[in-house]
């Protein structure tokens, strides 16, 4: 809900509270927050949150790839989007 309303600080705060409480997060949680940042035009924080996701050992699923590629393109980051596509094609 916070992400849809553009309240990313509250969304990330909820994520942090989940981590502190030992609630297991999944790729959907990360993808939702990443999408919220992109929709707000904040590709830097979206990519930082992507790094958190990958550092947790999570793999990108097709939904995450779609959100990231669409978000990067929508924020004028075409080179970065192309790099993600190339990584996806290589199986990473």
TrEMBL record:
PPR repeats lie at residues 1-25, 26-60, 61-92. The keyword Repeat applies. It holds the Pfam family PPR_2. Keywords: Repeat. Coiled coil: none annotated. It comes from the Eukaryota. Belongs to the PPR family. P subfamily. PANTHER family: BNAC09G20840D PROTEIN (PTHR46128:SF44), MITOCHONDRIAL GROUP I INTRON SPLICING FACTOR CCM1 (PTHR46128). This is Pentatricopeptide repeat-containing protein. It comes from Noccaea caerulescens.
């Amino acid at each position: 809900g916070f992400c849809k309303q553009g309240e990313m600080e509250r969304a990330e705060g909820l994520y942090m509270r989940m981590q502190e409480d030992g609630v297991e997060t999944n790729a959907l949680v990360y993808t939702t927050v990443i999408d919220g940042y992109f929709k707000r035009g904040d590709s830097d924080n979206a990519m930082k949150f992507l790094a958190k996701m990958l550092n947790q050992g999570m793999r990108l699923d097709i939904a995450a790839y779609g959100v990231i590629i669409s978000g990067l393109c929508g924020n004028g980051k075409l080179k970065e989007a192309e790099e993600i596509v190339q990584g996806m094609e290589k199986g990473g």
